[in-house]
Predict the structure of Armadillo repeat-containing domain-containing protein.
Amino acid sequence: MESFQNPDWETEFNRFEQAISSSPAPIRVRSVIKLSALAHQSPESILTRAIPILAGLLRVSDDPNRSVQAAAAHCLRRIACRGGEFAATMGRCGVIASLLGLLLEQANDNGIALRRIWVKCLWSLVTFGSSIRVGLARLGGVEIVTRELNTWEDDSSRWCLLEILTALTTIRESRRVLVHNGGLKFLVEAVKVGNFASRERACHAIGLIGVTRRCRGLLVEAGVVPALVDLFRDGDEKGKLLAGNTLGIIAAHY
């Protein structure tokens, strides 16, 4: 796809499709990168047709360096960030399962750069496609995200994992899994970092989890009180209200 003012999108898409289906990895990567660069201006119909192709690239087996898969994940992230139904379409095309599989595959080597790409793509789907959160949870999303957080260094990508986690805690079963796999400390961490929407989701989940005595003790040990105080001090009006209510739940029963 060439970047010019008034492209013939149908012709350019046909060229993209042909390059992906019959070209070696370097040309496929170049074609996907061009699509990524045009994702913000491409017609929705073109991007919708491109999503199944990109989803298929995540599953290729003839890409030992993962360059094609990385380019596809980056492109999918840019498309998902446009909002609308793109993220939901990706979920239906199996993108979530592919990304989780890639994260599991990379867990035993030093592919941290690739893992960042998979995580950022997954973050975009969860952030701009709330309807796919149930599917992610059913595929073991909470377990995989908490495992990643246990080994992930404190870098510029960690907040993506925390925001994915808080999105999953809007689901009751995900909160139960988080309690049983020792992930409450990450929920407390999520109150302190990320955007306010994610911090508020974490706060709300803590309030729901904190109604049981055992969980309150674990949350206090994880430092929930100062985290909530910080949100109460620095948050917006909704954040202050949630933090105050959650502090009340923790304090009244602890």
